[in-house]
Amino acid sequence: MGYGVTLQVSGDYALFTRPELKGERVSYDVITPSAARGVLEAVLWKPAIRWVVDRITVLNPIEFESIRRNEVGSKIPPRNVTAAMSGSNIDLHQYTGEDRQQRTSLVLRNVSYLIDAHFTIVARHAGENDTPEKFYNMFLRRARQGQCFHNPYLGCREFAARFKLIETTGKRPESFYANEADYDLGWMLWDIDYNEEPKQKRPVYTFTPRFFEAKMRNGIIEVPPEVNT
Q1: What is the value of pTM for the model shown?
Q2: What per-residue string of b and e applies to 33-69 under the rule 16 or more CB within 10 Å gives b?
Q3: Is the CATH number of domain 4-70+104-190+211-222 3.40.50.2000?
Q4: pLDDT tens, 82-123?
Q5: Are 115 and 36 in contact (CB under 8 A)?
Q6: Over 120-131, what HEC string results?
Q7: For the chain, which residues make up each domain, given as ranges?
Q8: Residue 223 · residue 53 · CB < 8 Å
Q9: Burial of residue 140, with CB atoms counted within 10 A of its CB: 0-12 exposed, 13-18 middle, 19 or more buried
């Protein structure tokens, strides 16, 4: 196991979309491990490291709010992008005035979490000078100064996240559910495995979603290190 870090993440709104609900977006009750990993990667991402979320602490009470947003109803087909990259004269614009749809979303409001995580070294991408101490100190320096490669967000890019490093010598904030023994959150997205399958002309990428049975005890969700389902 690599060096452990603790990051406090908060925001006014969050939307961690349940994949089983397609038309109207409905959020999970809490942040998913994959979204938490995305926040860590926004602060520090390198090919030589892989972030692993160990546990999530829910600091604020879980509150939902229904909002309406304007969205586009279609996406640009990947084959059109590929053809345009090959030199074909294809229009890649999306005309929002013609494709606008109004959808209702059930989002979380006033969220705050503690993310406990560590990173491991990816040997095939690591150089001679890529040591755990190097990346650990890089993360501490960037998190203390509020630096990030891109602004982290809570599920959707329009829901920006604030983050703060929790030092090992400092006091950890207490969860609103610290005295609540069990809180069943049901099946939650753990992460998505991306695989590259070699083909004759170009590789084909496949993905496999993996889920775990999330339970919150005293405000803390223990994230399994690996999920096979």
Answers
A1: 0.84
A2: bbbbbbbbbbbbebebbbbbbbebbbbbebeeeeeee
A3: no
A4: 888 888 888 888 887 778 888 889 999 999 999 999 999 888
A5: yes
A6: EECHHHCCCCCC
A7: 4-70+104-190+211-222
A8: yes
A9: middle
